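User: I'll paste a sequence; please echo it back and then give the predicted structure.

Assistant: Echoing your sequence first, then the prediction.
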Amino acid sequence: VQLQASGGGLVQPGGSLRLSCAASGSIFRFNAVGWYRQAPGKQRELVAAISRSGSTNYADSAKGRFTISRDNAKNTVYLRMNSLKPEDTAVYYCNAVAIQVSGRSDYWGQGTQVTVSS
């Protein structure tokens, strides 16, 4: 399983970015696909996730500003981030979870840097 994250960059406060997570093969193999972020000196935290059924959940800090979505035909999950704040600065990681009889497996993309600064 390979997850290719892209779309990070430098953006001014109030700006927008769209992150992409492209999976090798069908994303329906996974029970959920999500985005995590890790800022310097902080623990990695969940930002948003979308389940196989399409249900979504967001961190409180992301609600109302970020939207997670997917394109099944492209095996890609997106994170649209609006009204970005300096505190959104972090490395963003794509994560996919597969839950099987043998247990849970987590797969991670390589991370993409998001910097919000004027």
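Residues 26 and 94 are 15 Å apart (CA to CA). The radius of gyration is 14 Å.
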